[in-house]
Amino acid sequence: MTQTITPEHASSLVDPDKRRGGTGTLRFVLTKIGGALASVVLVIVLGFFLFRMLPGDPVAFMIRDRPTSPQQLAELREQLGVDKPVLSQFFSYLGGLLQGDFGTSYLERRPVIDMIGERLWPTVLLVGSATVLAVALGLWLGIRAAWKRDSFFDRAQTGIALTLWSVPQFWLGLILLVVTNGVFPSRGMHSPDAAPGLLPQTLDVLHHLILPCLTLLAVFYAQYMLIMRSSLLGEMNADYLTTARAKGLRDDLVRRRHAVPNALLPTVTLVFMQFGMVVSGAVTVEAVFSWPGLGQLVYTSLHGPDLPVLQGVFVVLAGSVVLMNLLAELLYRVLDPRVRTT
Questions:
Q1: Is-contact 139 222, C-beta < 8 A?
Q2: SS3 label, residue 111
């Protein structure tokens, strides 16, 4: 018996965006961009007033152990701009941000944007390397664990991942320092006695990178492994997999061509969010290993507190997370047609 396809039924089979003449995609993109801009503005406002609540006086920290007259103290406060009302300071700070000026460090008297630029590459190298390795390892183990559900391999990998995910990063870093016992460098990014030349310098950096990267990798991979396993388990009993098996496809082809691509969709958001955190680094790990990145910059700036530096780093970190979250939502709409029905 032949089923008659009505015009209404045929129109429902068309991509919703095409049915709306493409306006659905444009509205979706504009809505997400507007939400991202609103998030950045909220971050700037909250970050400014939040850091003003930190204990400590940056001016008193700058003049510690140095005799200073009340007049000199007043002049220093005026130079730093901390003698003005908080709202006046905020509008001055906002005006500078609109011009690309993140302010000047209280302690080092240097532009904050230059200090962030110097620390950005070490953080990208450390956390970026750990993230790339964690994605590959976590997805591979998650796929194997889900496909061998309730096996010894599945239970062992799930237990290890749950343990590592719950371990504080700084504690794991300290444990690795004790276990390796000087086999790898424990501080910094370069050795003072490293031989000159591109290859020796590169090998020296990689030697210093091993322990902090391994610390982050152990925590990062656990997230991808558990989420990939959960997502793939949700696809295991889907009708399209039963149909694929009924057609005689081998089990590995069913997994690779049908189950895994659909199970990857929820992982896309996590991957992009983690890449957004690349520039934020790991404050505790960089502090443990004295890695000269943004995390170490935040750690040292808290002592003052050096408010312009803290505010500048906070805006960069939050902005990167918002940007990557926006890209994840846009990519998710491309990968999953079901999202385009909204």
A1: no
A2: strand
Query: 341 is written with which tokens?
Result: 């029905």
Q: What is the CA radius of gyration of the chain?
A: 26
User: In whole angstroms, what is the distance from residue 326 CA to residue 131 CA?
Assistant: 19
- Residue 296 one-letter amino acid: Q
CB 282 within 8 A of CB 169: yes
In DSSP terms, 111 is beta-bridged to 104
Both tokens assigned to 283: 């404050």
pTM value surpassing 0.90: no
DSSP class per residue in 213-230: HHHHHHHHHHHHHHHHHH
Collapsing DSSP to helix, strand or coil, 71 comes out as: helix
Q: What is the mean pLDDT of residues 121-131?
A: 87
Asked if 130 contacts 217 with a C-beta cutoff of 8 angstroms, the reply is yes
Q: Is the peptide bond before 16 cis (omega within 30 degrees of 0)?
A: no
In degrees, rounded to 5, the angle at the alpha carbon of residue 157 between the alpha carbons of residues 155 and 160 is: 105
pLDDT of 237 > 50? The answer is: yes
